[in-house]
Structures are given as structure tokens and as C-alpha cells.
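Severity: low
Component: inverse-folding endpoint
Summary: output formatting inconsistent between runs
Steps to reproduce: submit the following C-alpha cells with default settings.
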């Protein structure tokens, strides 16, 4: 039973690292986009606000990738949990299944859409405000 628990700890450690990476990625996303907004306001070059879409898309994709991998490792955890204690082999190979489909489904999950959708709404709002101000001037 000790081997089974150790294997489950290994898998859980990977899941924890992936979720930590996802959390840090969200923080970096906000920091970078905020910096681009600050540059667009400071230098009066509103193009920096449009550039905010690029890291927004990139971070959303990476976040989806981490979530897809996390789901794969959770399936491995369930597989190890159901495995007989005498057959534990400490293999950490995951079944990525349908690859792009897993990534797309993870990227379109409720939590990622809520977070990154709000980021995109904020970017769009800033761009619209800049466009309205430039048309009025």
C-alpha cells in the first residue's frame, strides 16, 4: 500500500505544479496587459492597447494547455487509485487522448472563459474608449 500512496503523491505533485503554473500565468497576464495599457496612456500611442490582445490570446492558450494536462494527470490519478497495490509501477505517462480537442475543451471551460473573457472585455473597453476619444478630438 505504501507504493500506491507514493505513486498517488507523485501524480498529485504534478497536478499541484500545473495548477500553480496556471495561477501564475493569470497573474502575469494581468500584469503584462496592465503595463501595455499604461504605455498606451503615457505615450499617447494607443496602438499599445491593441497589442494587449496578443498576450491575452497567448496566455489564454497556455492556460488551456495547463488545464488540459492537469485533467490528463487527474485521469492518471484515478487510474492509479483503481489499480491493485501489487501492480503499481510508478509510470507517469499520461494519455493525452485527442490532443487538440482536449486543449480546445479546456480553453473553453467555464472558469477560463470567465477569467480570460473578462480580460478580453477589459481590453475591448479600453480600445473602444480610445477610439471614441480619438474620434471626438
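Observed output (run 2 of 3):
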Amino acid at each position: 500500500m505504501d507504493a500506491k500512496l507514493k505513486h498517488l503523491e507523485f501524480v498529485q505533485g504534478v497536478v499541484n505544479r500545473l495548477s500553480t503554473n496556471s495561477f501564475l500565468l493569470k497573474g502575469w497576464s494581468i500584469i503584462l496587459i496592465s503595463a501595455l495599457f499604461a504605455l498606451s496612456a503615457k505615450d499617447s500611442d494607443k496602438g499599445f492597447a491593441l497589442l494587449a490582445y496578443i498576450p491575452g490570446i497567448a496566455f489564454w492558450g497556455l492556460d488551456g494547455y495547463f488545464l488540459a494536462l492537469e485533467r490528463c494527470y487527474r485521469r492518471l490519478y484515478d487510474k492509479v487509485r483503481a489499480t491493485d497495490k501489487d501492480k503499481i509501477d510508478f509510470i507517469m505517462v499520461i494519455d493525452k487522448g485527442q490532443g487538440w480537442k482536449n486543449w480546445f475543451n479546456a480553453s473553453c471551460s467555464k472558469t477560463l472563459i470567465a477569467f480570460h473573457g473578462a480580460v478580453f472585455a477589459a481590453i475591448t473597453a479600453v480600445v473602444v474608449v480610445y477610439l471614441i476619444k480619438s474620434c471626438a478630438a
